[in-house]
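A reminder from the course coordinator: this example appears on the midterm review sheet, so study it carefully.

Given structure:
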């Protein structure tokens, strides 16, 4: 989570300094969800993370060097300079399906992956992510229904962060939770504190195990708050300052570090060294990216379905 926060802050700084060639999103407030769920998967499982799931990309083995190089549009980036942010940052060798911008299309893709595991009788799990806004789309309900009927090995992680871009939750739906919708479609669901990484990981690990053992799909609704705008260009002036102050007290990174200290698992020196190491890794990623070559324009048609 600390590396996710440090790397995310650095990418925002690069964009503000005009050193990036594309846009960037932010993870602040989501670190416990992306790390807690990503850590519940086995190496042979597959994930379809979104633009606020940097921790999952890192957990799956995508390096900060490749991620920063992607934001700077370099050939060493995940997309080879074709997409200068986390959109499309897929790597099937790491079990990562690239984020599909048209939400919630990643959910249906993940269902297809899960169905392929079932057809081949493989004990593997597909995990997909979606925001609260995406759950209001018809495709979300169709996917849950089909997953339930076929008992697909699918785990759906709903990142309920209170806002779909600028639309607050109460303007999207009458209820406060997405879980009841899932239950109505035959997919057991659990609501968890999305700012508590232990709670997220415990719930995600249990869901993955049930799914892997043939128990059918599961949905995990993690409640949190998106602490910055939808993307770097969005100042989020529409969010009440009092709401942000309330959630700031429940910063997932701060909460977990405090818990580790209180329980005597680590000392402050350990956390300080961890923070230093994260800064070092991030600085190395930036230096690597900025010294990397730009993509060759002649290669623009490579790796695409319809040149």
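Designed residues:
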């Amino acid at each position: 989570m600390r590396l996710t926060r440090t790397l995310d802050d650095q990418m925002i700084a690069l964009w503000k300094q005009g050193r990036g060639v594309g846009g960037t999103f932010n993870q602040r407030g989501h670190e416990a969800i992306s790390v807690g769920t990503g850590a519940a998967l086995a190496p042979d499982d597959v994930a379809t993370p979104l633009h606020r799931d940097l921790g999952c990309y890192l957990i799956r083995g995508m390096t900060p060097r490749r991620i920063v190089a992607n934001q700077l549009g370099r050939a060493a980036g995940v997309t080879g300079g074709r997409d200068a942010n986390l959109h499309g940052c897929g790597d099937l060798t790491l079990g990562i399906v690239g984020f599909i911008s048209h939400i919630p299309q990643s959910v249906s893709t993940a269902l297809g992956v899960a169905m392929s595991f079932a057809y081949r009788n493989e004990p593997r799990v597909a995990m997909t992510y979606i925001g609260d806004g995406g759950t209001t789309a018809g495709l979300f309900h169709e996917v849950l229904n089909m997953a339930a009927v076929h008992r697909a090995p699918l785990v759906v992680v709903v990142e309920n962060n209170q806002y779909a871009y600028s639309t607050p939750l109460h303007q999207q739906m009458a209820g406060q939770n997405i879980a009841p919708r899932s239950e109505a479609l035959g997919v057991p669901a659990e609501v968890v504190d999305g700012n508590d990484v232990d709670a997220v990981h415990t719930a995600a690990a249990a869901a993955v195990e049930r799914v892997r053992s043939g128990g059918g799909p599961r949905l995990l609704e993690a409640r949190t708050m998106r602490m910055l705008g939808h993307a770097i260009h969005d100042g989020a002036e529409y969010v009440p300052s009092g709401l942000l102050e309330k959630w700031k007290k429940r910063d997932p990174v701060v909460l977990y570090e405090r818990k580790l200290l209180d329980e005597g698992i680590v000392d402050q020196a350990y956390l300080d060294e961890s923070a230093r190491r994260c800064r070092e890794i991030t600085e190395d990623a930036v230096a690597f990216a900025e010294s990397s070559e730009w993509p060759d324009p002649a290669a623009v048609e490579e790796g695409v379905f319809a040149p």
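The longest strand covers residues 154-160. The mean pLDDT is 94.
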